[in-house]
Amino acid sequence: METERGTTVIRTKILGTGSYLPPKVVTNADFEHLIDTTDQWIIDRTGIKERRIAEKGTWLSDIAIEASRSAIEMAKIDPKEIDLLILTTSTPDQPLPPTAIRVQERLGLKNGAAFDLQATCSGWLYGAALADQCIKTGFCRHALIIGAEIMTGVVDYSDRSTCILFGDGAGAVVLGRSEDESGFYSHHLYTAGQFMDVVEIAGPGVINPNTHENLEAKLHFVKMKGKELFKEAIPRLVSSSREALEVNHLTIEDISLYIPHQANLRIIEAVARRLSIPMEKVFINLDRVGNTGSASLPIAIDEINRQNNLKKGDWLLLATIGAGLTYGASVIKW
Ligand code: UT7
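That is the input. Now the predicted structure with oxa(dethia)-CoA docked in place:
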């Protein structure tokens, strides 16, 4: 909590982080035996070298719980003190009930609000922004925001343009009230619905029910217009990042670390060039984990936190883009 010109500013900060990556590693070379591709093509076009794959039979809730346990342990709070749980995913355990409910039950959380949030790869940042408002207004005291995906369950392993991109994993962050000036400063979230068909899983759902024909047409797999998404991602990551800096009267020099959604190294490098931020200040782990959807940002935050290189007072700029298109940026003072 800090005081600015006589008014009390309540902030929300990160109390604990955790992540979980399945042990099984799939390298680019492994794909060379499966589809018409090469290690070099994948590295040159995406920057990805390997990704983690959940073993068959692993539930989304299993990996979400692993990440959450680490985050709660670091936060040093009793699970019963968590009164808001938001699980963000595009690959839930099942359509109903939300996976968050199974996680709440298995973690032994308080009977507070628990729900799934679907905002594609931007889901975790949307969830964190929502929880930030809930903590500030006193709606809840502690929030657990999980991003988790088993993308390999919705990827077509005969489609070379998508199957090489995605990996499985989970990240979780416990948020609570800040006692000083550290925490979230602002969120800038957007949706560009005119691009809703650029990435989709078309069924099963109301439009495309679970029929034999729809299954044969592979409507249950991710389809992506990669080039279109690539072109749209860069200016949107740049504009939301710039807005986040401006609102907080920060320049790019003030930022200690830029943490973008990990989809494609070429996208990230193009964004960094436009923002004039040197790549040494840009966090990258996509070479090791691939695109983990809504788990991308919380996995990154946990890795960064556990590396212990951040100093109190460091400014972090987070940026995201995903199907929808959903996109945006947030600023954190560490
Ligand atoms: O999490 C949501 C955010 N997601 C993203 O931001 C993804 C954005 N898009 C991308 O990352 C890129 O568009 C891809 C990596 C998906 C594709 O890279 P690209 O440079 O846009 O390639 P392209 O789709 O234009 O394909 C170029 C060529 C095509 O062959 P032809 O038509 O020129 O003969 C593809 O068929 O590369 C071919 N190709 C491949 N070749 C070897 C596509 N996938 C592969 C592959 N291996 N795995």
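The chain has a mean pLDDT of 96.
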